[in-house]
Amino acid sequence: MKSLGPLRYFQGLEISDTSDGYYLSQAKYASDLLSSAGLTDSKTAPTPLDSDCRLTPMDGVPLDDPTLYRQLVGSLIYLTVTRPDIAYAVHIVSQFMSAPRMTHHSAVLRILRYVKGTLLHGLHYSARSSLVLTGYSDADWAGDSSDCRSTTGFCFFLGDLLISWRSKKQTVVSRSSAESEYRALADTTAELL
């Protein structure tokens, strides 16, 4: 074995060390993804999804060849390693991998246009952060119009460092917003343990 020096690039992750900590990003990986999707000259989007975006399994016309859709969504899933800002949007479009349609493909392209405008976003891990663990959770009650299940989202911070996050559909249908929030809290604390 031999030392290859400080870690700078590993499987699409770019690691930069500064005097106050580390910065992780996937700018090159995202740039390559935009090139493979043919979006290098496209306009950027201000958000990953429209605020009133409600995708269902039967929206639009089925794609002739779903291969590109599946490749793009799979790549976006890997991009969420350093991009928690797109986790919810990627969670939504990943539900249609078995039978994607044109509207789902359009949503994926919007996520990619958002990524293009935020190419240098990533995670900063400060060397001076405190060791106080804080968690946040939320749920959208019956947010999925096709099966009325809610989506749980949570994140954990160690001091001011984001260390864990997830966006996941709940396994059962909640009868109220309070029940949906309690389920989100239970999922969040179970993740902590």
What features would you highlight for this structure?
2 domains, 7 strands, alpha+beta, three-stranded antiparallel beta sheet
Termini separation comes to 37 Å
Number of E strands: 7
Strand content: 15-25%
> Into which percent range does the helicity of residues fall?
25-40%
Shape: flat
Order of helices and strands: EEEHHHHEEEEH
What is the topology, as strand order, of the major beta sheet? 1-2-3-4
**Secondary structure tally, helices:** 5
Number of domains: 2
- Which class do the helix and strand fractions yield? alpha+beta
Low-confidence stretches: none
Can you put this structure into words, describing what you see?
There is one protein chain. This protein is of the alpha+beta class and about 190 residues long. The chain folds into 2 domains: about 10-120, no CATH class; about 130-190, no CATH class. About 35% of the residues lie in helices and about 20% in strands. The chain contains 5 helices and 7 strands, in the order βββααααββββα. The protein has helices spanning about 25-35, 65-80, 85-95, 100-115, 175-190; strands spanning about 10, 15-20, 20-25, 120-125, 135-140, 150-160, 160-170. The chain has a 4-stranded antiparallel β-sheet. A 3-stranded antiparallel β-sheet has the order 5-6-7. Helix 1 runs antiparallel to helix 2 (about 65-80). It is flat and about 55 Å long. The N and C termini lie far apart (about 35 Å).
